Amino acid sequence: MKAFFEGIQYLFVNILFAPLDFLRSLELKSWFVANTINWIFMIVCAAAMVYWIIQLKLHQDNGEENQDTTAHSFLK
């Protein structure tokens, strides 16, 4: 059983986290490059938020948005 957990440790520490260790070692040279994963996540989230707001605006302009307080049963 111990070998199983050591195998999981080896997989994560030496293989799957190797790219993250490389990015961590870059931190002293270039902070922006070391945080590329964070920048990518922020860009994706910002794009998703812009898309969502545009879709909300389109539904509101088409009159599909029901803003009555009784639109949901839990608001009655």
From TrEMBL:
Regions crossing the membrane: 32-54
InterPro entries named in the record: DUF6341
Keywords: Membrane, Transmembrane, Transmembrane helix
Pfam families hit by this protein: DUF6341
Keyword Membrane: yes
Top-level taxon in the UniProt lineage: Bacteria
Protein name, UniProt field: Uracil phosphoribosyltransferase
Species this protein is from: Flavobacterium xinjiangense
Organism ancestry: Bacteria, Pseudomonadati, Bacteroidota, Flavobacteriia, Flavobacteriales
